[in-house]
## 1
Amino acid sequence: MEAGIKLFLEGFGVSMGDPDFRNTPHRVAKLYVEMFTPKRMHRIVSFPSTYTGMITLRHHTVWTMCPHHLLPVEMDVCIGYIPSKKVLGLSKLARVAEAVNIKPMKQEEYTDAVAFELHQLADPKGVGVIVAGKHGCMRCRGVTTRGDVVTDVMRGQFLMNGDTRHEFLELCRRQS
């Protein structure tokens, strides 16, 4: 990876003898390894429960890279589920959001992966995931918009029941 980054910089005419760039290939490679090393889920903690309400994590930030331009994407993630006989440890929602961030990927793919992973872990009555992404490739080139791109995946009760979907959307919309 470092050799590729060095070639990339040299393509811009950067001298690798320049003190500002001497360690850049190593630092950039380290950044990508850190960002995309799969996060361990540790032990999946779940508890038997008769709780039937919605459990939602709002405004969890995940950073990734756009697969088309390798520019940063800051994603605001909202995840919710309705338990069926068990609840996950609360930190598992954030861990799911982190665990699927293993490579530069399209926001749509990421949103679906979060919903799939949560459904696999919790076997819930329903899952909802909303991701609002601030894409570097849209902010600094081309269209140059500051707008967010929003994707969502709804499964089970979130998809089939309009009241459940509305409640989830309202919870995600709130700032605090």
Note: The mean pLDDT is 93.
## 2
Amino acid sequence: MKNYIITGSTGFLGSRLSKSLEKNDRIIRNLNSKNCDLRNKDNIYKFKEKYDYIIHLAAWTQAGDFCLKYPGDQWIINQEINTNILRWWKEEQPNAKLVFMGTSCVYSENSSLTEDEYMKGEPTESLYTYAMTKRMLYQGAKALNQQYGLNYLCAVPSTLYGPGYHTDGRQLHFIFDLIRKIIRGKEYGEEVVLWGDGNQKRELVFIDDFIKILDFLIHNCNNDIFNIGAGQEFSIKHFANLICEEINFPFEKIKFDTSKYVGAKSKCLSTTKLSKILNTYNLKNLDQGLKETINWFYQNKVFDL
């Protein structure tokens, strides 16, 4: 039986991944900011048990314009977190495999978004600091592998969605923000205003699909980096229209505020490398995935939070 330790275990991905691993009779140690503040290096050293896998999901960030508001804090805090994990891995857990998340915002706007371009070019300006902390994490893992032979895997996700998103007051990723605003437009007659002109494009992967793919990569691929995406993107208008159709709200009532922050205009990860190693690569239908997510919003009254 394998031992896993997961940082960021209370996040959207962390909580679902932990439950999935437990179903397969794996021993899980869940860490979060309350039981192990990773900004203090001494905290992680309290965990003396030897682990087979370190799954590092913790990061100090939020959706929306958070990266624009706190670039300095993001640099210092994320560098502290990542450096402390890397040091602990090297000194206390050299036989463990470090699995960590990259970010699609690392890629240059002129990039083909293939893994060999992860460290090339300039990241999107508005997300620059956060992107560079992720590049530093990747380089740190590569350096420790080169010098000490430590084993790692870097997964670069597109935007994840599905039931069970966090409800603790943090800013919502775009698809959850769209669902919440449109539901409130229907239920409470509120004005629905979306950021940008609606033509910016995004890519979604259902959370359970991502976890299945990640689980395969964790146990079959070493010292490598993989994009995990849908290979297809749609405009914000398209997503909004699908949500409107599902809850029976007139799309024509939606307004777009072009003065607001929108981030990258397009962001669709190349999945060529991933497709080559998977026998099947089937993702949940977008309509069905949105339906399940919207049902979760209603069942848990998330739109009231």
Note: The chain has a mean pLDDT of 91.
